[in-house]
Specification:
- The chain is of the alpha+beta class.
- The chain has two domains: 1-79, Nuclear Transport Factor 2, Chain: A; 83-142, Nuclear Transport Factor 2, Chain: A.
- The chain has four helices and nine strands.
- It is globular and about 50 Å long.
- It starts with a helix and ends in a 9-residue tail after the last strand.
Amino acid sequence: MRAFILKYLRDRFGIQKKIFSDYSFIVRGEKIWIAFKDVLEKDLEGLNIEAIGLLFGRYFEKQKRFKPTTNALQIFGRYATKNIVELDEKEKDMYIKGYDLEKKLNLEEGYVIVKFKNDVLGCGLYREGKIKNQIPKARKII
């Protein structure tokens, strides 16, 4: 799974695999977590741990599709070199409120990194001239 994720991130966003050299991916069902390798080497016996690391994304087996989380893109999106959507002030305000955006772009259809200036807002799904909002409901500003 590690090879698949690293290839996806390189092909989709231009994020090089060396960025993840200090990290391990943990797969639990469709959920994929990321944690520092050295954390996984610690003796954690006796601790009541619900999860280790950050939820990095989900892999949908039937569609052979990976969807990165907002958190993952906010942390690692700064290393991306492609499939990035830059929003203006008005678009940013609409996006963080949860609206989809109509925007014709010269990008591959699929997941994109949505940015405003230097800030990664999260993930969007670009298809047919629209960016479908992928920001979790709890993070939207009403």
